[in-house]
Design goal:
Blueprint lengths: L1 H14 L5 H15 L6 E2 L1 H17 L11 E7 L4 H9 L16 H7 L5 E9 L2 E9 L8 H4 L10 H18 L1
Parallel strand pairs: 1-3
Antiparallel strand pairs: 2-4, 3-4
């Protein structure tokens, strides 16, 4: 039975591999945005190419520095973990966000940038150097506008997408059923 479960888990794991980092990052963003009732972002390949180029620049410097350009909101991350963990760490800032006093805060600015309801476009790039992953995400139209937090950062609705967990549970139940028969 253990062999069957391991085989099914391996198949399940490989089935989750989509296109690549930008597509996977977009999917994670949109799952989190859906939890807040925000519309999906669309991936912009030109903006993503710019993000990747800037991630390479950051890797050359060995540190994170925000750009001085206007027209988008930007999230930066450097990690030795999986690059998608950057998105999760940005989203976890939600635990510090005060919906009763909506405002820009250095503690939650990554979260608010990725959830910003009026943003509809994502550019995201990744560059890896010396086991460090540099991730640059840019959102358009620009978010984190001081006077617009109340209408652009809705509370989570609790409607998370549990389809992956459900599929895994079904696979395990099928494995148990097969083992018993």
């Amino acid at each position: 039975m253990v062999k069957i479960i391991l085989i099914l888990l391996a198949i399940y794991g490989f089935a989750q591999i989509d296109g690549g980092f930008p597509e996977d990052a977009l999917a994670r963003h949109n799952e989190h945005r859906k939890n807040h009732g925000c519309p999906d972002l669309k991936l912009d390949s030109d903006l993503s190419n710019e993000c990747e180029a800037y991630a390479k620049t950051l890797a050359g410097k060995g540190k994170l520095e925000p750009t001085k350009l206007d027209g988008y909101t930007e999230n930066l991350c450097m990690t030795i973990k999986k690059p998608l963990e950057c998105i999760e760490s940005w989203y976890m800032e939600k635990n510090l966000y005060d919906y009763n006093a909506p405002r820009l805060s250095s503690e939650t600015e990554h979260f608010t940038a990725m959830i910003w309801k009026a943003s509809n476009t994502l550019g995201i790039g990744l560059f890896t150097k010396d086991e460090n992953h540099y991730v640059v995400a840019r959102y358009k139209p620009k978010g984190n506008i001081k006077s617009e937090f109340k209408e652009n950062i809705p509370k989570a609705t609790g409607n998370a997408d549990h389809s992956k967990s459900f599929c895994l549970a079904v696979l395990i139940l099928v494995a148990v059923f097969i083992e018993r028969n």
